[in-house]
Amino acid sequence: MRALVADMMIGDHPAHPCVVVSNNADAGGIAWAKGQGIATVVVDHRPYGSDRPTFEAALSAALAPHVPDIICLAGFMRKLTGGFTDAWAGRMINIHPSLLPKYKGLHTHARALEAGDSEHGCTVHEVTAALDDGPILGQATIAVHAGDTPDTLADRVLVQEHRLYPAVLRRFASGLRDPYFLQG
Predict the structure, then answer these.
(1) Per the residue annotation, which of 16, 96, 145, 162 is the catalytic one?
(2) Is 96 known to be catalytic?
(3) Is the pTM of this model over 0.85?
(4) Torsion angle (degrees, nearest 10) of CA 41, 136, 176, 9
(5) Are 120 and 105 in contact (CB under 8 A)?
(6) 40: part of which helix (H) or strand (E)?
(7) What is the three-class DSSP state of 122?
(8) Do the beta carbons of residue 125 and residue 136 sit within 8 Å?
(9) For 56-74, how does the pLDDT look when each residue is reduced to its tens digit (9 = 90+)?
(10) What are the E-state strand segments in 74-118?
(11) DSSP run (H or E) holding 142
(12) What angle do CA 127, 128, 131 make, to 5 degrees?
């Protein structure tokens, strides 16, 4: 989120941050965004239990006053239902720490190592109701080195995430949907 906001503040970026929303009041991004003068909202998912549609209605209500054109998910670890994703179809993007369609879900770095992959990376994609399954907008790759651990791989992928996501958002906000690729 910080990399996205920092990039939006440079030059003639076609997107501008209007609000940072989190389901976790303790998320570091909330305090940071407040310090940058960006509106923040917390919608805690826990009171909703397993009632995802009601939680998502609360998210929609929190977003509505800010009138966002695009939603960028960054560290939002909640699966969204079709009711929410369909309302934002073509206007919501996410970053995932694998080269999709490989390794949807969690523990991507360990799974890449267990599979013996020679390269790994991250993907920015449009969000749909299917987990980590929307159209791919960009990918960044890194080589997997002998002796890599999930943590060392995660550290190197994170560097690429901070390069890829801002570049893809800039393109996406300009109307470009063709995939963009970075080599690490």
Answers:
(1) 96
(2) yes
(3) yes
(4) 40
(5) no
(6) strand 40-42
(7) strand
(8) yes
(9) 999 999 999 999 999 999 9
(10) 92-96
(11) strand 136-143
(12) 90
